[in-house]
Amino acid sequence: MEITTALIKELREKTGAGILDCKGALTETGGNLEEAEKVLRKKGLAAAAKKAGRVAADGLIGFRCDGATAALVELNSETDFVAKTDEFGAARKVLADLVFETSSLGDAPEGNGEALRATPAPKALASSGTISEWLQAFTAKTGENTQLRRFSRLVAAPGGKLTLYAHPGDKTVVVVETAGCPDDLAKDVAMHVAALTPQYASREDVPEKTLADEREIARAKAQASGKPEAVVEKMAEGMIAKWYSEVVLVDQAFAKDDSKKVGQVLAERGGKEAKVRRFVRFRVGEGVEKRSDDFAAEVAALTK
Q1: Which of 129, 128, 169, 132 is nearest to 149 (CA)?
Q2: Integer CA distances (angstroms), 7 to 51, 70, 146, 286, in order
Q3: Domains plus CATH for the chain?
Q4: Beta-strand runs (E) in 32-133
Q5: CB 141 within 8 A of CB 149
Q6: E strands in 91-210
Q7: Fewer CB within 10 A of the end CB, N or C, for the chain?
Q8: How far apart, in whole angstroms, are the C-alpha atoms of residue 191 and residue 175?
Q9: What is the pLDDT of residues 209-238, one digit of tens each?
Q10: How far apart are the C-alpha atoms of 42 and 236, rounded to whole Å?
Q11: How far is CA 6 from the centre of its chain?
């Protein structure tokens, strides 16, 4: 498979590794992005919990939550100048209301953005066409590319409650679904998710393949130390425990008291039945590629 500039760029954005390292890993794996990322991580050239993509796009998160249902939408612009306008701010609220009130969407943590853009625009947007057509018209009006990038709609399961935290500026918004948690604890957990970006609520939520890959990477790193096999096993398990503490909510040090893990705080303040079932975290521009001067030229210069 040809190792294209686009492949190198995507791997670099996912891992933060150097261009030459990315090209080498892709060459070694025949262009397989997932395996190339594992190669880089085994060599210590990529951060284990680094999220794919660089934050670049601007905009605002629209949101609405009543405890039983919650809706989040990410409306993007190219600059904060447009995002701060009254019309833009009102539009993201209208779109969030639409998602919230459209019961046919059901429970959709990762909503189908393409399908939503194809629906008729709410009357409050003063458009007779679809949401996509409104986006085009707004783009023409402001001179900046405007996109409805994604949405999430959550419906609490029996015994659960949804709690929303919007960080000042409405660029990071979190919804957590909890059971058995007092309101103040649920709010603290939502704030924690906003600040420390866990990927999973509990260890049980980690996909089997993801955990298997982490174990493979940890073992490879431990074996590289040249230590005896018994020591290698302990080192690998220690690495997995550290990884859990970075990506699993209940294993993370609590943002308001880092002497305790989130799981311990849940038990102390909510009782043994207190649980975080799931969460959704939207941060404006997360994973959106930032415009660069000339990445292709940079690759060409470094890989000659």
Answers
A1: 132
A2: 17, 36, 26, 19
A3: 5-52 (1.10.8.10), 58-171 (3.30.479.20)
A4: 58-65, 69-77
A5: no
A6: 147-155, 161-166, 172-179
A7: C
A8: 9
A9: 999 999 999 999 999 888 888 899 999 999
A10: 12
A11: 22
Across the beta sheet with 147-155, the strand order is: 58-65, 69-77, 147-155
Helix (H, G, I), strand (E, B) or coil at 187: helix
Angle between helices 229-247 and 208-223 (to 10 degrees): 130
Compute mean pLDDT per 10 residues along the chain, 304 residues long, and list them: 86 80 90 89 62 56 98 94 95 98 96 93 90 90 88 97 97 97 97 96 96 94 89 93 96 96 96 96 80 55 54
- Rounded CA separation 24/15 (Å): 14
Beta-ladder partners of 175: 164, 280
Residue type, 278: R
C-alpha 21: how far from its chain's center? 25
| Six token digits for residue 117 | 């853009």
Cα 34 to its chain centre, rounded Å, is: 18
Instruction: Report how far residue 74's alpha carbon sits from residue 148's, in angstroms, rounded to the nearest whole number.
Output: 6
Cα–Cα dist 263/62, whole Å: 30
| Backbone φ and ψ of 122, nearest 5° | -60, 150
